[in-house]
Amino acid sequence: MRDGFLNVLKPPGMTSHDVVGFVRRMLKLKKAGHAGTLDPGAAGVLPVAVGRATRLIEYLDEVDKSYRAELRFGLATDSGDDLGQVIERAEAFAPPGHEAILRAAQSLTGVITQVPPVYSAVKINGRRACDLMRQNIPVELPARQVTIYRLDILKEDADRLLIDVDCSKGTYIRSLCRDLGARLGIPAVMAFLLRRRVGDFRLEDACTPEELAHRGEDAVEPPERYLAHLERYDLPAARADAFCHGLPHHDSGFSGRGRLAVFGPAGFLGVGRFDPETSSLVPEKVYRTE
Question: Of 57, 8, 23, which is closest to residue 287 (Cα–Cα)?
């Protein structure tokens, strides 16, 4: 059985957990997991790791993402999308003008402060906020800083906007839609979400569940394809086996920092970090064991 990543095109109606269950059944394996949960009503790219690659999921947490979303004016909900309980409704409002929309979008570009929706996977004392809300336990989430690299308005209708967003980890598009409406003085919710990219996982390369069922194991791709955001480090051949056994490698001439994708003659070995105090590459997650 291959180990690696699947680039899955999650359809609306399936949960991220449903997709992982489908992959387990399709490939007849137990070890599988996903990165970056998508809401059941959303569609788009869902990275799924299988086999040994499940140990590498955490390294996808830092990558940027891209979305296409539809914003609906005129109501606000407790969940931030149009499936939640309505908490505010504007029966009549003047459609915002083009220039006002552009100014509002510009004000939400760059490093911004955002409060996640209470119906989200954000954890409070180890429990997800959405689970607490469903048990009628009041939730108040702190604001966080996120980065909106690009916020483009693709289409404007009387009560809707179609937007494209490039953003950092931790960004909630439901909150972005809510805040864009607030800038315009009109309640707003997210009506639809399509995730177009997670790091190097791209929509145009993603496979539907039906395509995965047809391709089977051939759809599994090597993990290094999706770890290009980590700086590459090539170990000397004589030190590759030591790395795979968890031993550090001294390199006084290396000046990199942070996490590194480590390669040897046989290919990708795992992820390490460089310790500047000891001038050593320290194994963090060994992927190849031989």
Answer: 57
Domains defined for the chain, CATH in brackets:
4-63+200-226 (3.30.2350.10), 65-198 (3.30.2350.10), 231-286 (2.30.130.10)
Residues present in the chain in total: 290
Q: Write the DSSP string, 189-258.
A: EEEEEEEEEETTEEGGG-B-HHHHHHHGGGG-B-GGGG-TTSEEEE--HHHHHHHHTT--EE-TT----S
User: 173-183 vs 98-107: helix axis angle to the nearest 10?
Assistant: 130
- Residue-wise pLDDT for 141-200, tens only, equals 788 999 999 999 999 999 999 999 999 999 999 999 999 999 999 999 999 999 999 999
Give the catalytic positions in this structure.
39
**Structure tokens that stand for 238 in this block:** 């004589």
| Residue found under tokens 């001439």 | 253
Report, in this order, helix, strand and coil percent for the chain, each rounded to 5. 25, 35, 35
Model pLDDT for residues 257-280, shown as the tens digit of each residue: 789 999 999 899 999 999 999 999
* Contact by Cβ (8 Å): 60, 35: yes
